[in-house]
Amino acid sequence: MAFSFLLPLLFFPFIFLLYQLYYRLRFRLPPGPRPWPVVGNLYDIKPVRFRCFAEWAQSYGPIISVWFGSTLNVIVSNSELAKEVLKDKDQQLADRHRSRSAAKFSRDGKDLIWADYGPHYVKVRKFCTVELFSPKRLEGLRPIREDEVSAMVESIYGDCTAPDNMGKSLLVRKYLGAVAFNNITRLAFGKRFVNSEGIMDKQGQEFKAIVSNGVKIGASLSMAEHIPWLRWMFPLDEEAFAKHSARRDRLTREIMEEHTVAREKSGGAKQHFFDALLTLKDKYDLSEDTIIGLLWDMITAGMDTTAISVEWAMAELIKNPRVQQKAQEELDRVIGHERVMTEADFSNLPYLQSVAKEALRLHPPTPLMLPHRANAKVKISGYDIPKGSNVHVNVWAVARDPDVWKNPLEFRPERFFEEDVDMKGHDFRLLPFGAGRRVCPGAQLGINLVTSMIGHLLHHFNWAPPNGVSAEEIDMGENPGMVTYMKTPLEAVPTPRLPANLYNRVAVNM
């Protein structure tokens, strides 16, 4: 009886060792840490994975093999190899690895983020580039972005000037998260779920609950995703995923119906993404699954990343008061103290743009690019990458490579005056939005919102560490995860620097 119980425990490691031997004899794989039977390198990987992989690259070289259970993952950590992955061998590496949860959420890749490269991906990608994120649509939606940023300024001003809060620190993430949430829901759904008193309506509460539940049930499968032999111990909760999908679809269809009725009454469509999807679905042959998938792609990709990027930027600006002062001097010179900044001012604010770019260089919100899956055997840097392997670009490590960046750990926006570096996928030293066939189609929208938020925060306020805390004591560690929040949420003391009438929200209804 005991032997029959132990037999599977002995059998699986044996099969894994044979599998490893087969790979090593057939392929010339990149070097890397020695994997353990069954689990591979899973127990060797430190929680903040991109730092762990960068450390391993110091020992094994800029391309390494890491085994997640029985799945080979290849991580590249310099700009030359990033170019090879994302440009030279892009077509063979354009598929997407989908975990069981990602497959369920995306209806097996019927959205954009989790779709394999093929006719569906090309069609949806074209729709996003030509229609959803076109310069005309982004400009048409600019009043929403500026409304939400001005609401953030008003909220910070009200809190920091309240008698009980004078000189006290505020939790910066609270205000950035509100902007990100309200902005993305208004752009996507054409609805502001939070009223002027800060009270969220029922649809907004349902929306937040759906997002939270999706994270919860998606994370519950993490170990079994990498070890197929263990999936019988961690079966997919089909009922939980079905309930989640039905709940998400019910809310989306409810808002869809509201848009349809409003459009019939007004006789025309608005600029919101939802209206674009509904009015152009026949032209692009978009199924309901794809429409819903695209909307939730935009929400998951755009909500956390904006707040993360601005929080890191503000931490760096507080740690580097010289940069903060220089950016404010530019804002005062160009904007003055009699009006507020708009996105139309960006072209006259090159230092502000460089501040945003430098923050995205040092702290990309997705430091490990979502994995690209090899759809055929391919060679990178002379090594074999077998079909089905996952390839990751360590964007964080690439942007801190001392071979291509002078003093890479220094927060110095002036570096972009010395050399113009594109960050929308054309220069492989700086890849916060990816590159190649899978570059983020909403990159310009993200850049505009991040730049606007930083600009308003600096124009309206001086920022200092909490009383009794020096700038050097600000914790610049990262939280583990696919997106990288600050480990310790940033607290800071804002001091108003403009006339009181410039702190009012400029509300728009669209």
TrEMBL record:
Topology term for the membrane: Single-pass membrane protein
CDD domains cross-referenced by the UniProt entry: CYP98
One GO cellular component term noted in the UniProt record for this chain: membrane
GO MF assignments: heme binding; iron ion binding; monooxygenase activity; oxidoreductase activity, acting on paired donors, with incorporation or reduction of molecular oxygen
Transmembrane segments: 6-25
Localization annotation: Membrane
SUPFAM superfamilies xref list: Cytochrome P450
Pfam families named among the record's database cross-references: p450
Coarse class of the protein's main subcellular location: membrane
Keywords: Heme, Iron, Membrane, Metal-binding, Monooxygenase, Oxidoreductase, Transmembrane, Transmembrane helix
Required cofactor(s): heme
Entry-linked Gene3D superfamilies: Cytochrome P450 (1.10.630.10)
Positions annotated to bind heme: C440
Family under the similarity heading: Belongs to the cytochrome P450 family.
Protein's UniProt name: Cytochrome P450 CYP2 subfamily
Provenance organism: Handroanthus impetiginosus
